[in-house]
Design goal:
Blueprint: E1 5-6, H1 8-16, E2 26-31, E3 60-61, E4 66-70, E5 73-77, E6 82-87, E7 90-97, E8 103-114, E9 117-122, E10 135-138
Antiparallel strand pairs: 1-8, 2-3, 2-7, 4-5, 5-10, 6-9, 7-8
Length: about 140
């Protein structure tokens, strides 16, 4: 089962000063419907990660990552990650910090299996604002 969330370990590690999302390398990996991802996920794993043409284990590096704050919310924006010419089936994704021992940040649930066949697959990032950003913490 895949449950969309910020992971509990990430929230704790933010308070401990582990992550620097403005400078660390963030990645996104895709997972099949057989994966178990949610609040208790602590790190990237290859278990039930997508396999198929157009996908490389470990996923894609997030680009143009920007940390912002507004109206009592800190949030992160980045470009839409895309896999060109993929042929695989994915149900969700894990955003993780490759600079910090592949520690988990957030889990995405696509709602249904997404199955590109020889075509690009893009994760559409919500608009850049404090209400809809994938990674956001209200203070």
């Amino acid at each position: 089962m895949i449950t969309a969330c910020l992971t509990t370990s990430f929230l704790r590690e933010i308070l401990e000063g582990v992550h620097d999302l403005a400078t660390d390398t963030l990645k996104i990996a895709l997972y099949s419907s057989a994966a178990t991802l949610g609040e208790a996920t602590t790190a990237y794993s290859t278990a039930n990660e997508v396999v198929g043409p157009g996908y490389t284990a470990g996923g894609e590096t997030l680009t143009n990552v920007v940390v912002q704050s507004s109206a009592g919310v800190a949030y992160v924006d980045f470009d839409n990650p895309t896999w060109a010419g993929g042929t695989f089936s994915t149900r969700g994704a894990l955003i993780y910090n490759a600079s910090k021992a592949d520690r988990s940040i957030a889990v995405l649930d696509f709602g249904t299996n997404q199955t590109p066949v020889g075509q690009p697959f893009m994760v559409q990032v919500p608009p850049d604002n404090p209400q809809t950003a994938i990674i956001r913490i209200q203070f």
